[in-house]
Structure formats: C-alpha cells, structure tokens
Amino acid sequence: MSKTMKNSFIANIPPKIKVYKSRWYILLLYILYTTIGQFQWVEYTIIANIVMRYYNVGPSTVDWTALVFMVVYPIFIIPALLIIDKLGLRVASIIGCLGTAIGVYIKLFSVGHNLFYLVIIGQVFVGIAQLIILPLPPKLAVTWFAEKEVSTACSLGVFGLQLGAALGFILPSTLVKNHDDLEMVGENLKTMCWVLAIAITPILIALIFYFPPNPKCPPNNIQNDDKFSLSNFFGSLQYLFTNGAFVMHLAASSISIGTYTVMGSLLNLFVLQYFENAQEDAGRMGLVMIISGAIGTPIIGKFLDKTRKFKESCFISMIFQIIGMILLICALEYKNKILVYASFAILGLFLNTYLPACIEFATELTYPTAESTTTGIVYAMSQTLGFGATIAISLFSIEYGAFWALIIITAFLALGSILTLVTPNTLKRQACFNNKNLTEFKSIPQQDVEHS
Q1: Half-sphere exposure of residue 50: CA atoms within 13 angstroms, side-chain side
Q2: How does pLDDT run across 183-234, given as a tens digit for each residue?
Q3: What domains, with CATH codes, occur in the chain?
Q4: CA distance linking residue 322 with residue 350, whole number of Å
Q5: What span, in angstroms and rounded, lies between the C-alpha atoms of 136 and 141?
Q6: Residue closest to 315 by CA, chosen among 244, 418, 429
Q7: Hey, which residues does 450 pair with through a beta bridge?
Q8: Secondary structure (3-state) at 450
Q9: pTM for this one?
Q10: Which of 422, 414, 99, 98 is CA-nearest to residue 245?
C-alpha cells in the first residue's frame, strides 16, 4: 500500500483516489515480457521436424522443450508465490523478466549439433520465470487501475499469453527453414535466438529503471495493508484449499485450462490422424485458435467490468467449449477442413476468454487472499493437470484414435460445466468494493477519481 493511503488510515480521513496514465505503460511492459516468455513455450515444438534433424534427437525429446513449462509448476510454484507476496509487484516483475532473459541468453550458445542440453536449460529458466510472471495480472490490475478497469486490465494482461503463443505458431517457421544444409538451419536457429535476446533486453532495462512498486495515491479503495509473514502466507494456502466454492471452481478451471494445454500440444496429432501431410494446416489451425481468443479477451474484460457476471461468463464459456468440441469431432469425422477451422476458432475464442473470467471469479471467491496467490494456485493445478492429461491423451489417441480422445476431453468439459453451475456465486471482492465503510470512513466515489 502507498504511503498516502497509510497516512489516511492513521488520520481517519478519506484517501485521495487517483489513477495515473503510467498504468498503461506498466501494463504494456507486462504484456511485452509475457509475450516473449510465452512465445518460447512452442518455439521448438512447432518446428519439431527441423529441430530433430539439426540436433539429431527424437520427437519426445523435442516435446520436453514445451513440457518443461508444465513440469516446473508443482515444483516451484510455492517459492514463486512467496517472492510475489514478500517482495511485491516491482521486484517480482524484474525477477520474472530477468529469468526469461537469462533463459534467452543461454540459448544464444545452444546452436550446435551436440548442444541441445543448453536448449533445455534455457527453457527451464524461462519456465520458472513464467511461474512468477503469470500470476501477476490481477495484482497489477488492482494495484494500478480504477475499480471499473480492473477486469479489463486483467484481461489485457492475459492477452500477452495469447500474443506470445500466436507469434510462437508463426515466427519459428518463418525464421527457421528446413534447409538441406544443416549449417544453414543452425544460422536460422541463431537468428531466432538473437531476435529474442534483442527483444527482451530493452524491456528488462525499462523494468529496472522505471517500474514503481506502487502508485503514490491508490487507484481504488481496496488496497491491502497486510504485512507479509510465512504464517499468513501458508494460512492463505490453507484457506484456499478449505474454501469449498474455490475448490469446485479450481477443479472446473483446471479442466478448461488443461483442455487448452492438451489441444495446443496435441493439435498436430489429432489433425494428422484425419488429414495426411497436413502439418501446415495444423499450424494454421492452431494460429486461428489463438487469434480468435486474442480478439475475444479484451472484449470479455470490458464485459466483466460492466456486468460483474464472473460465474455466468465461466459457465457460458464452458458450454460453448463443449459445442466447439462436438463440432470439431464432427468436422474431423467428415473430413471437412473448413468446418475444422471454424471449430478451432470457436474453441479458441471460448477457451481463451474463459481464462480472465476464471481468474477474476477465483479472486472474488477467495478475497482477501492475495490475488497473485489465488492465481498462482489456479495456474499450478491447471498446468499439473494439463501435463498429465497431455501425456495420457497422447498415448490414448495413438492407441485408440483421436475420436475417442476428443470424446473424453468433451466429457471432462461437461463435468467442468456442472461444477461451475453448482459453485456458489460469492463475490467477496465486489462486496468490499461496494462497502462505503471499508476503512471506517466513507470512500471516494469512482466518478470523483482523479486522472493523471
């Protein structure tokens, strides 16, 4: 909390509520370094055939460049959340961006036929850095944005993930060509590594030299003054897992986000079982899935800010995810490529727009637990489920076919929609926003907020 608001507490006078134009700069920085981090999730798997040739490794080895992002979650999530809660938004952002930069710099030295281990080490650094980066949007939103902008800011933060994934589907295949000469492939890989290094460096410098820990005046009346302690932190974790409404929502969100992970990771496998030599189509279908979601994400943020319909948005999104899966199964069975593209557009729209709604709903259910802690647990459980499901569904699809694998995914989405439907719609944070006696004095109405 800012010093201004602390002094207001002591004097028992209303704090000055003010939003700063610099909030958009800070959000932009977050979007940029999140984009670069998420780009690297599919950086190598999308050109797996080229990477296999250059490094002389098998397909499962290349898959680990993406799977490592999921493996590190259950191992490092608690230390990551401790860093965010104890050190704050500025330090957490710098550490996350620095970790991403270190991973990128390591991969500058990974170009060589026997240096694939450096690729994996670089990916591990980026994956761990993502643990600190991904939970930040709701914390950044409530720290810097007015009450009526919180959901929009959170959604725009999530947009960085989608932009990174979209670029990950496009740029690697553009920068790295499948040359007969492996030395030319190496030069292309080196170019891709340098593009990332040149992109991340100025962002890291900007974070270090201008990223204030807090605004001088609070942008809303819901700032949290709880001092960090290990007992409070682990008490928050205990509260999360004994909060029945949150546990139900956590299960539902893990299914939806896990489905996104599975579909993104196994898209090639599913499509190629129906269309031979359709690798390029599979890449374009993945891109369609990401772009449709990127278009919808800012819209859902505005919608949530205006309506506060968090649970309802999650439920409707899951229903349309089920519809998208059914359409996809039918399109694949009839081998109708146009309908397959349309199905992936629907899936991408509702799988991606579910994410900001689910994060906001989780924050509502668990208030006053720190937003980053709640979001981190949602991501950790989702990524853990996604990792296990990706391996299981991959093996199942190879053994029994994509049709039954997709049926299983659809059945789990139906279970998730039922869990969402029965989850209590307890909006604790909104109740606090609307409480005029939040700090034992009347807060300033949002229409009186000063903009600077």
Answers
A1: 24
A2: 999 999 999 999 999 999 999 999 999 888 888 887 777 655 555 556 677 7
A3: 18-219 (1.20.1250.20), 229-431 (1.20.1250.20)
A4: 10
A5: 8
A6: 418
A7: 18
A8: strand
A9: 0.79
A10: 422
